[in-house]
Write a structure and sequence with these properties.
This protein is 58% helix and 15% strand. It has 13 helices and 12 strands.
Length: 480
């Protein structure tokens, strides 16, 4: 009110200043003065509004009559034609001020509509850029508060019953109203607190509700926000479903892969055991030395088969993120020797260069898991390098860690694929149809390294590839 009163006084003061200027300092004829008054009224209407312009119009009419229409110095008019001119001036000034005010208001409304459209567009783009289905609704509420400058936002998801809050302020005691809006599609308005609660609908079905507090938002913009919120919640639900479907697909693929791998891996020891027992049964009178050798082969292959079964079980456990690490202080060199001995059938006549640093820091690790990880790395090196090339294995001091390098002289891994080779089931298109495999080995080895708070990295050129598995050394004074 004070601002409006000040503007009214300034409008009248402007008329007085113009009158003094035209009457005392720069004498002007009545027509020029009338147009000058009209221009002033239009300026006031454009700057402040119709009420201020109306006050300026009335003040201008009175001043024009008193100072510039004969008889000068009185509020009477001698010539009837001047009455016509005076009322024409008053009507023109009022109509012009009204038109100017309406044009200004429409221009401001157009600007506000444009700002609303820009904010809705910004919000829709932000919706498309949000990642992560688990926190999608919370990010959605935060983006809404940020884009529209809202003091508080609460988004309620009917499907999960979760409330997602954003903004510097917070609502209290509105949970029941939000549930009601989500259940029945009701809306609530609180003009005093500048609060609005509205349903979020997908089609005609409410799937949630939204409460906002802050600057006034038109109904059309509020409806647009609610529609975008519905799209966002549906997108989050679709992402969750897609992840569940992908997890189910990968689980099924894992089961199929494990069955195929076990069938292939188990065939070799089973064949050896079967050959040994068949030979013993077919000729019981064989010399003791031959029978002993046959039994030894069967016993060794039975141990090999048990190891394969243990590895398969560990692969399944690791893939479903249940890595149970049972650490004990052990010698990494001994584990490497065990792995190489168990892989003799696969190594055959391949050349292996094994090198151990003389002094290694103490390391605590899970023997079974590390054996499985090293087996995957060595098997990978044998599989992807030519039979006539060596495979080098080095166990070294890695500056506060023990590092195991497995190097082959294969064709190398393209730089673009080096970031993906540790993904489950990923296999390079260049070798997918040429070399059998599941795409699980490196992923399992990386999971085991991470479970030990270590790492698995790769350094590859077209002529040489080195995988480095690093295990952190024990701190001085620590115990298992």
């Amino acid at each position: 009110m004070r601002v409006r009163a000040l503007r009214l006084l300034l409008s009248i003061a402007a008329v007085a200043a113009l009158t003094f200027l035209a009457y005392r300092l720069i004498p002007l004829n009545a027509a020029t003065v009338g147009f000058t008054y009209l221009l002033l009224v239009l300026i006031v209407a454009s700057a402040w509004g119709f009420l201020e312009a109306a006050a300026a119009s009335i003040a201008s009419t009175v001043a024009f009559n008193y100072f510039f229409l004969p008889p000068i110095g009185t509020l009477t008019i001698a010539d009837p034609q001047n009455w016509v001119a005076l009322f024409s001036f008053l009507a023109t000034s009022l109509i012009a001020s009204r038109l100017s005010f309406v044009a200004k208001r429409r221009a401001l409304e157009a600007v506000r509509r444009q700002e609303d459209v820009e904010r809705l567009y910004t919000f829709s783009r932000a919706l498309l850029l949000i990642e992560g289905a688990d926190s999608f609704a919370a990010q959605l509420a935060a983006k809404l508060a940020d884009v529209f400058g809202l003091e508080a936002v609460v988004l309620y998801e009917r499907a999960t019953g979760a409330f997602h809050r954003a903004g510097p302020a917070d609502f209290e005691g509105l949970d029941d109203q939000l549930r009601e809006a989500a259940l029945h599609g009701a809306s609530y308005f609180d003009a005093a607190k500048r609060r609005v609660i509205t349903a979020v609908r997908l089609g005609s079905q409410p799937i949630g509700s939204l409460a906002i507090q802050g600057p006034e938002i038109t109904d059309s913009v509020l409806q647009g926000i609610a529609n975008l919120m519905a799209i966002g919640l549906e997108r989050a639900r679709a992402q969750r479903l897609a992840r569940e479907v992908e997890a189910a697909r990968e689980a099924e693929q894992l089961r199929t892969t494990l069955v195929d791998a076990m069938a292939h891996e188990f065939k070799t020891p089973l064949t050896s055991i079967k050959a040994a027992t068949t030979a013993l049964l077919s000729d019981p009178s064989q010399p003791a030395e031959v029978r002993s050798e046959m039994l030894k082969i069967a016993d060794q292959e039975a141990d090999h088969l048990r190891t394969l079964i243990d590895d398969a079980v560990e692969m399944a456990r690791i893939d479903v993120s249940r890595v149970n690490v049972s650490r004990e202080v052990s010698d990494v060199r001994g584990i490497v020797d065990e792995v190489l001995e168990s892989m003799q059938p696969a190594i055959e006549d391949r050349r292996l260069d094994v090198e151990y640093d003389a002094a290694l820091p103490p390391v605590a690790f899970d023997r079974r898991l590390l054996r499985l990880a090293l087996k995957q790395l060595i098997d990978n090196a044998l599989k992807y390098s030519a039979s006539g090339t060596p495979v080098r294995i080095r166990v070294r001091d890695g500056q506060g860690a023990v590092a195991v390098d497995v190097t082959d002289q294969g064709n190398g891994i393209p730089a673009a694929e080096q970031r993906r080779i540790f993904e489950r089931f990923y296999r390079s298109p260049a070798v997918k149809t040429q070399i059998p495999g599941s795409g699980l080995g490196l992923s399992i080895a990386a999971s085991i390294a991470q479970a030990h708070e270590g790492s698995l990295t790769v350094d590859s050129t077209p002529a040489e590839t080195t995988f480095t598995l690093t295990l952190p050394a024990m701190e001085k004074g620590s115990s298992n």
